[in-house]
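# nightly structure sweep
# worker-07 picked up a monomer target from the shared queue
# config: single-sequence mode, recycle default, output format = structure tokens
# input follows
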Amino acid sequence: MSLVTEESKSKAERRFVWLRQKKKTEHKFEKIQKLVSYAPEVTAYVEPKRIKKLTGVKSKEFLLWMTICEIYVNDPPTGKISFQIPAGLSRSFPVAAFEVEEEEEEVREDGGGQEVEEV
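# output follows
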């Protein structure tokens, strides 16, 4: 997932964070087949293993967009991450579904390739 941010700030003493981007962004988490929408401004209060009072993030469930207001992982760890909506209902998924996979660079076994000279 790549979010192009215009501004991102954090105030450690309050644990308040926000993200500003030029326009709304949507991302599909392929491992769980969920579409998520990020508003031009996303705000939250962050504490260890929990994000509270989250604004600007919605997930598509069936035909409805549901506002996500809280994200948390259990302590002790269970390998699950939970997402809660304002009505108090929550849904859990494997943490691995949200891990960023780094793209593997192709390496030629014959040692071929071109050298790039800096100017």
